[in-house]
C-alpha cells in the first residue's frame, strides 16, 4: 500500500476490477517471505492463542485468512466483491475456511459467533463506524476479541481513521483495548512508511 494506493479511493473503488492486481501490493499478497513472516508474527500475537473461529471481514483475496488458517484457526471470510471471494477460495482450497459474498458492516453469518473478528483497512470506509463496531462486538463469543488494523493515509488529502478516534468509538463497548503502532515496522509494508498505521486489539469478558 502506498499513499496513492487503492485505500485512498476505497469507498468508490471497483474491487472486482482491482481483484486481479490486488495482491501486487506487498502487504496484500504477502508474496515476499519477510513481509509474510512479519504479518504472521503480528497475527499470532493478536488472535487467540488457541485455535478458534475467526471472522475476516473485508477479507479481499484471503491473505490474512490464510495466515490465520495456517495458525490453526477456522476462518470465515466475507467480502463485498465476488471476484475477491473467488480468489480467496482458491487461495485457501483444502483449508478449514469458508468465504461468503457480503457486506462487512452486516456480514451474512446468521447466528454464528466467533472468537475473533479480524478487519484490516475496512472500518474507515463504512458509514456509521460506531454502529458497525457495536454489531461486530455482538458477533463475538464470551472472551472474544476485535482485531482492527487501520490507519490514515495520504499527506495532501488524508483518508482513514486515527487511532484515538477508533479507541474512542470502542470505549462504550466496555472492552480492554490496546493500540499497537505499525508505521515503524517496514517489514509489514515492504518499505519504509511515514503515515499512521496501527492495530487495535479489543478484548471482552
TrEMBL record:
Top-level taxon of the source organism: Bacteria
Keywords annotated in UniProt: Methyltransferase, S-adenosyl-L-methionine, Transferase
UniProt-listed InterPro entries: Methyltransf_11, SAM-dependent_MTases_sf
Keyword Transport: no
Gene3D superfamilies, A to Z: Vaccinia Virus protein VP39 (3.40.50.150)
Biological process according to GO: methylation
Annotated ranges, domain Methyltransferase type: 55-148
Molecular function GO labels: 2-polyprenyl-6-hydroxyphenol methylase activity; 3-demethylubiquinol 3-O-methyltransferase activity
E.C. code: 2.1.1.222, 2.1.1.64
SUPFAM superfamilies: S-adenosyl-L-methionine-dependent methyltransferases
UniProt keyword S-adenosyl-L-methionine, yes or no: yes
Protein's name according to its UniProt entry: Class I SAM-dependent methyltransferase
Native species: Streptomyces ardesiacus
